[in-house]
Design goal:
The chain is of the alpha/beta class. Helix 2 crosses helix 10, helix 4 crosses helix 9 and helix 10 crosses helix 13. About 13% of the residues have low confidence. Strand 3, helix 6 and strand 4 form a beta-alpha-beta unit. Helices cover 42% and strands 11% of the residues. The structure holds 2-acetamido-2-deoxy-beta-D-glucopyranose (2 copies). One 2-acetamido-2-deoxy-beta-D-glucopyranose (NAG) binds next to helix 4.
Length: 382
């Protein structure tokens, strides 16, 4: 057994070395990706902040979490451990191994589910790296499967126009329903109810964009029912906790419409852009050093909002983008459809509004986006 062990050890060391070199190269490549390096608008982007925006403070924790899940160790995920036990699948958690609690798999059905869970999670985690031209892949990743489901011809054409409908209470001040429905595609967020609000928010839905917490809630329902806009409306979802791939596996098998998980490279792109804007706002607004940003913004948990990623998605799949229901005002509720008071602290909505304004007025200053990508015109309705 000894020689075999040495060989394995050697392979492991080699793999780590290759990984390190790859990492180093990706950070060098990054420099060339700043879209306006060398052009007139260069001063707009600050190198220090760009670099810092690429550091994901939560990454080590995420890595540990993913590794534990891949081993079947749900110890740190007690909230989820009975997740599948109410349906026909069951995860039995028992303290059998010395390392902690591990999952015992009983039914062959669950075993298959478990295998694909691991495969999906592994692929997802492996692909969380430097985004390159990922904006140009969005039509293939999102629009093509939706068209195919509706029996339309496969094409790389974008939607002529899209409305992204946020959930801000400011929507209650206007009657944009008809205007929203006049767009070729309407994107709604986190399954916000539109029934009863049609004259304000419209009634048409082409795509429902959600975070995986929403799907996790749906997964508790019979047949993973997640269709407030009708069973033919496709879902696009980003993963906010890796354990939610279990929900994805269960729901994907029962959904007839496409249930698309966002490309992790697209997630990273969104995260970096928002962090850059948040850093910039923090440094300029407080006069403090960028190093103080993390404690002030709960750096390890900091995340973009679903709205931001839905807008980014629309930029990739539409020729023209209109944004409704984004923004706040002292006299408006936080959500049009709920009585939730405050905002979640892990988002920086002000930084995201800065991004939307740049999208309208000077999209070329938005960092990390490939030069080849052409921004569509964007309008904000408030
Ligand atoms: C970039 O930001 C850093 C950190 O806030 C600051 O120290 C530096 O002066 C800025 N550089 C430029 C060129 O504005
Ligand atoms: C999700 O469901 C679709 C349609 O049934 C299928 O083509 C796809 O392979 C599934 N994805 C995964 C990861 O199982």
């Amino acid at each position: 057994m000894r020689p075999l062990f040495s060989v394995l050890l050697l392979i492991a060391v080699a793999a780590i070395l290759v990984f390190r070199i790859t990492l180093r190269y990706s950070s060098i490549e990054l420099k060339n990706e700043y879209p306006f390096a060398g052009k007139a608008e260069k001063p707009v982007l600050n190198e220090t902040l760009l670099k810092y925006a690429c550091i994901d403070i939560g990454e080590p924790r995420l890595k540990k979490e993913v590794e534990e899940l891949l081993e079947g160790n749900f110890r740190g995920h007690n909230r989820h451990r009975s997740f599948l036990s109410s349906g026909k699948y069951r995860i039995d958690v028992s303290p059998r191994t010395a390392r902690g609690v591990s999952v015992q798999l009983r039914s062959p059905e669950f075993y298959r589910l478990w295998q694909s869970f691991r495969r999906n999670l592994q692929d997802w985690f492996r692909n969380r790296k430097l985004p390159k031209d990922v904006m140009m892949d969005l039509v293939s990743a999102v629009k093509v499967p939706i068209d195919a489901h509706s029996g339309l011809v496969r094409s790389q054409k974008r939607y002529k126009s899209c409305a992204v409908v946020g959930n801000s209470g400011i929507l209650l001040k206007s009657e944009y329903g008809e205007l929203i429905d006049s767009h070729e595609a309407v994107i709604r967020l986190n399954n916000a109810r539109n029934r009863g609000f049609e004259h304000r928010v419209g009634s048409k839905t082409t795509l429902s964009f959600v975070n995986s917490n929403i799907l996790h809630l749906c997964a508790r329902r019979e047949g993973c029912f997640c269709h407030p806009y009708g069973v033919n409306v496709a879902l696009v979802m980003y993963i906010c906790q890796p354990v939610h791939f279990l929900d994805y596996m269960v729901c994907n098998s029962s959904h007839k419409v496409p249930l698309v998980v966002t490309d992790p490279r697209f997630d990273i792109l969104c995260a970096r852009i928002v962090k850059y804007y948040s850093l910039k706002r923090f440094v300029e607004g407080t006069g403090k050093s960028f190093q103080e940003w993390a404690p002030a913004h709960d750096g390890a948990n900091f995340h973009y909002s679903s709205g931001l990623q839905a807008v980014m998605l629309a930029l990739g799949v539409c020729e023209k983008v209109s944004i409704f229901g984004f923004g706040k005002s002292a006299s408006a509720k936080h959500h049009y459809h709920t009585n939730q008071r405050g905002e979640l602290k892990l988002h920086d909505y002000d930084a995201e509004y800065d991004i939307y304004h740049d999208l309208v007025e000077r999209p070329q200053v938005i960092p990390f986006i490939s030069e080849k990508f052409k921004f569509p015109p964007v309008s904000i309705y408030q």
